[in-house]
Write a structure and sequence with these properties.
single chain; alpha/beta; Rossmann fold; 7-stranded mixed beta sheet; two-stranded antiparallel ribbon; 7 helices; 9 strands; about 20% strand; globular; binds S-adenosylmethionine
Length: about 180
């Protein structure tokens, strides 16, 4: 079991999408694929662009708003608004709150340096039917870190059984 886990961890480190290094497992992409089919979001928000491989994957499914505090050459993809800034700044918080309101169905992904604080900060802006995911579940973020927010914001587990079955590092909730 531990070997399998380690292999999966190695696989994470070596994952690529369309030839670009991506900080996701293949099972994470599967969970997103299923989510986009079910939710049909008109906006996908990604906190933490890194090299843009997941941004690319997201852009094949619709409009993407992504942000990182380090500018990198991520390539040019249609549907993508690439922003540089700090997700904990008031300016970015207000911008994100506004674009969530301006769209009818949002899938929101916390994949930044501090997933716990991102989740706590942004979960309150979600509308009914929006979905929020965090990455590195049980690694950088655990249930005890966010259970208060989950309860207060009335969030329901989303695709948890599938995420566990396929060893995904994602956990999602729907508002
Ligand atoms: C794990 S990587 C993102 C991986 C990417 N989503 C992928 O799947 O390939 C996290 C990124 O968050 C960025 N970051 C860290 N703290 C940040 C902050 N406060 N605001 C914006 N970006 C931040 C880092 O520069 C880094 O590129």
């Amino acid at each position: 079991m531990i070997t399998g886990y380690m292999e999966e961890m190695d696989h994470t480190l070596n994952s690529t999408f369309a030839g670009q290094e991506i900080a996701q497992r293949w099972s994470d992409l599967f969970i997103f694929e299923r989510t986009f089919q079910e939710i049909k979001p008109d906006l996908i928000i990604e906190l933490g662009t890194y090299l843009g491989a997941l941004t690319h994957f997201f852009s094949l499914h619709g409009k993407v708003w992504t942000i990182d505090n380090m500018k990198r050459d991520i390539g040019n993809y249609t549907n993508v608004k690439y922003n540089i800034g700090d997700v904990f700044s008031t300016k970015i918080e207000n911008t994100i709150a506004g674009i969530i309101l301006d769209h009818s169905k949002v899938v929101f992904f916390c994949d930044n340096g501090n997933k716990i604080e991102e989740f706590k900060l942004y979960a309150k802006y979600l509308k009914k039917g929006d979905v929020i995911f965090v990455h590195d579940w049980n690694n950088e973020i655990m249930l005890k870190d966010i259970e208060y927010t989950i309860e207060v914001e009335n969030l329901t587990p989303y695709l948890h059984e599938l995420s566990i079955k396929y060893n995904s590092l994602l956990r999602g909730w729907i508002k």
